[in-house]
Design goal:
alpha/beta; Rossmann fold; 6-stranded mixed sheet; 6 strands
Length: about 140
């Protein structure tokens, strides 16, 4: 049985970065997106769209390209936003003090059945229940 790894929004954003100083992160993000054992959530896809297309971004992505990328990434397991995700996120926020949005990412990863969460927004090596938080850029 294959275990799943959940990707946070920052992984998707680094995968499209054209900034020279983010080249190593871009390559690492692309490596992760080449895996088959990946899960995302609707929240992650929505956050990607908002951040990738914002006018204040140095290299804003056109709507059609952002939409095409999002559709491509639906080949992965996608965790819907649900009452169960919201309730678990509220519990995580109360127990651990995470922001609601970080807690919702963790909740989605748990409910998708993931064992790993790749993000640079939380503490590398931290365990939240059975979920291991990993910063894929820690060694860069």
């Amino acid at each position: 049985m294959t275990t799943l790894a959940f990707l946070d929004t920052n992984i998707l954003l680094y995968s499209i970065s054209s900034a020279p100083e983010e080249a190593a992160k871009r390559e690492r993000a692309i490596e992760l997106l080449d895996r088959e054992d990946i899960a995302l959530s609707v929240q992650v896809l929505q956050e990607f769209y908002v951040q990738a297309t914002r006018a204040s971004r140095p290299d804003p992505v056109p709507h059609d390209l952002a939409r095409a990328l999002m559709r491509t990434w639906t080949r992965f397991r996608i965790q819907e936003v649900s009452v169960a995700v919201m309730e678990r996120a509220l519990d995580l926020r109360a127990s651990f003090g995470f922001s609601y949005w970080d807690a919702a990412i963790i909740a989605a990863a748990e409910l998708a059945g993931c064992e790993e969460l790749f993000t640079e927004d939380l503490s590398h090596g931290q365990r939240v229940g059975s979920l291991l938080v990993l910063n894929p850029f820690a060694a860069l």
